[in-house]
């Protein structure tokens, strides 16, 4: 199983360049990927956590990371599709994919922060329909010289679109969420399912549903890449749950190794670890510890 690292672009770092330094370190230590998340406003729980501290734009951070790294994958966990215009998003992602020599993994979702939708003038109730249309439009924009798309919310025809991504036919799309709507979206559009707040058993229970949905869509379930974003803490506290029932990766070294093994056994190909701190030195120390004490055993 592979291990990724959720960059703290959402933790209120004063200098975004420090986040890029952490990405460089993660690559040197052998992590498979780094990921950034997205909120445009300090909505509800974001405001409670950050107050006036910054929450950085995810693709800009990954662009800087692309220029300072060579092989680590660059993911989003996740881009909130209904907040974006499809051609602009398609151009930005394609440009990043070219700059990084084909290292982008596009994690996408719809979010649940209705107050952000209100501020953006986007109908919260249509977010699922909009997301599906945007995914269809992105696939066409990335693969057709003169893309033509006619949906309820987005329409394009008659004009060339470039650049196309380096990865063909386009960067892997990892659909976030665990609702039935998200699973249907994954089956229809996803190269991967990228979830959070799920235990290994939760994932194991959903995979047969995904398999059936993908078969119904005429797609091969074995091609789906399964990943999860989960918090990690070396707190040494005794675990009161079996590894298969844990949603947080914590406890002793052996507890952490056992939890990661449970995710692997459930069908996960990659776990993206998230560190809840805005102290760069804390991230650096924890990355070193993960690389030395955990990575060799998974």
Notes on the structure:
With 298 residues, the chain is of the alpha/beta class. It has helices at 16-29, 44-50, 58-68, 86-99, 114-120, 127-143, 180-189, 200-216, 253-266, 280-293; strands at residues 2-6, 33-36, 73-76, 79-80, 104-109, 149-150, 155-156, 173-176, 192-196, 225-233, 249-250, 270-274. The strands form two sheets. An eight-stranded parallel beta barrel has the order 1-2-3-5-8-9-10-12, surrounded by five helices. A two-stranded antiparallel sheet has the order 6-7. The relative contact order is 0.14.
List keywords for this structure.
alpha/beta; 10 helices; 298 residues; TIM Barrel; eight-stranded parallel β-barrel; globular; two-stranded antiparallel ribbon
Summarize the structure.
The protein is α/β, with parallel strands linked by helices and 298 residues long. The chain has 10 helices and 12 strands.
Share of residues in helices: 40-55%
Unreliable runs: none
CATH class, please? Answer: Alpha Beta
The total domain count is 1
Which sequence of strands runs across the widest sheet?
1-2-3-5-8-9-10-12
**H/E topology pattern:** EHEHHEEHEHHEEEHEHEEHEH
Rounded mean pLDDT score: 98
CATH architecture: Alpha-Beta Barrel
According to CATH, the homologous superfamily is Luciferase-like domain
Major sheet size, sense and barrel closure: 8 strands, parallel, barrel
Please give the number of β-strands: 12
Briefly note the structural class of the backbone. alpha/beta
The CATH topology is TIM Barrel
State the separation between the terminal residues, measured CA to CA: 7 Å
- Dominant shape: globular
Q: Total number of helical segments?
A: 10
Beta-strand residue percentage: 15-25%
């Amino acid at each position: 199983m592979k291990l990724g690292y959720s960059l703290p672009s959402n933790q209120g770092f004063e200098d975004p360049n420090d986040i890029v330094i952490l990405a460089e370190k993660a690559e040197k230590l052998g992590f498979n990927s780094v990921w950034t998340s997205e909120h445009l406003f300090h909505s509800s729980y974001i405001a409670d956590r950050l107050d006036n501290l910054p929450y950085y734009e995810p693709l800009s951070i990954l662009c800087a990371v692309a220029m300072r790294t060579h092989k680590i994958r660059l993911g989003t966990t996740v881009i909130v599709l209904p907040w974006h215009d499809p051609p602009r998003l398609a151009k930005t992602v394609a440009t990043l994919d070219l700059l990084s020599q084909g290292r982008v993994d596009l994690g996408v979702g719809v979010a649940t922060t209705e107050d952000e939708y209100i501020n953006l003038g986007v109908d919260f109730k249509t977010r699922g329909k909009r997301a599906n249309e945007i995914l269809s439009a992105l696939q066409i924009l990335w693969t057709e010289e003169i893309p033509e798309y006619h949906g309820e919310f987005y329409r394009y025809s008659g004009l060339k679109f470039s650049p196309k991504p380096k990865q063909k036919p386009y960067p892997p799309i990892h659909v976030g969420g665990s609702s039935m709507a998200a699973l249907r979206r994954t089956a229809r559009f996803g190269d991967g399912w990228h979830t959070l707040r799920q235990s290994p058993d939760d994932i194991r229970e959903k995979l047969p549903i995904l398999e059936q949905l993908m078969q119904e869509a005429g797609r091969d379930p074995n091609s789906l890449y399964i990943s999860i974003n989960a918090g990690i803490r070396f707190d040494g506290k005794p675990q009161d749950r079996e590894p298969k029932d844990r949603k947080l990766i914590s406890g002793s070294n052996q507890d952490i190794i056992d939890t990661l093994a449970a995710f692997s056994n459930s069908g996960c190909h990659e776990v993206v670890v998230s560190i809840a701190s805005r102290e760069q030195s804390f991230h650096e120390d924890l990355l070193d510890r993960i690389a030395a004490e955990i990575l060799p055993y998974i």
